[in-house]
User: Which sequence fits this backbone?
């Protein structure tokens, strides 16, 4: 079983209790200072009673973009993206949640083959999108969504403007995200990458299922690593 297969197994119905629907605002209401994880190596102790979550932006570019807009193929709906991020940041502020969003700024030689394969897949999807627009004259299917050019730069600027902590990793993306999470006392991680499961984060939430609902809740799924290790008989 590879890393990608492990993530699929964690999300599947084959693992009973592996993914549980949660409302982050309800979790934030239950957070108190005495419940925050203790780490002797932490440089800065958490102050107050906010729910602190670190987000791997690479796993949820479409979520941060605000979902699917048909015009993304023509350059992106930047105003709607900023509007969505404004609503999201207002909701997390009201809900007593603090976010830190991390982008991948590394050039990992050991992962170069993965990057090449990913670029080939994107190139193929873009070709299918252009062919669809040319032949059908209709918006492309949602499943072909590809991040518009400069989306990461636009997200970083918008999030900074809205007062959200934004960072870029430099050497090893996954290790730096987990190290920051532990060192500064974050309560959980929002991502969708089974590599994080191996690091045993405090709590592991799905970034792919992150939703800001009309009723004002912030819903997602929590991956239960304990159920995964129990099923795989890993200690």
Assistant:
């Amino acid at each position: 079983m590879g890393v990608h297969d492990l993530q699929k197994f964690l999300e599947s119905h084959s693992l009973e209790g592996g993914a549980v629907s949660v409302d982050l605002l309800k979790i934030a209401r239950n957070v108190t200072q005495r419940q925050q994880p203790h780490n002797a190596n932490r440089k800065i102790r958490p102050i107050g009673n906010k729910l602190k979550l670190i987000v791997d932006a690479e796993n949820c570019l479409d979520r941060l973009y605000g979902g699917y807009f048909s015009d993304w193929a023509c350059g992106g709906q930047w105003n709607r993206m900023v509007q969505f991020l404004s609503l999201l940041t207002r909701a997390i502020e009201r809900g007593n949640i603090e976010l830190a969003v991390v982008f991948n700024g590394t050039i990992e030689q050991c992962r170069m083959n993965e990057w090449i394969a990913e670029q080939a897949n994107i190139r193929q999807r873009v070709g299918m999108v252009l062919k669809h627009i040319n032949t059908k004259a209709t918006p492309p299917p949602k499943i072909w969504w590809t991040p518009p050019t400069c989306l990461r730069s636009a997200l970083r600027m918008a999030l900074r403007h809205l007062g959200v902590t934004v960072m870029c990793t430099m050497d090893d993306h996954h290790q730096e995200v987990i190290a920051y999470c532990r060192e500064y006392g974050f309560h959980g991680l929002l991502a969708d990458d089974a590599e994080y499961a191996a690091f045993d984060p405090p709590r592991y939430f799905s970034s792919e299922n992150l939703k800001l609902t009309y009723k004002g809740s912030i819903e997602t799924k929590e991956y239960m690593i304990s159920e995964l290790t129990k099923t795989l008989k890993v200690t």
In short: The longest helix spans residues 112-136.
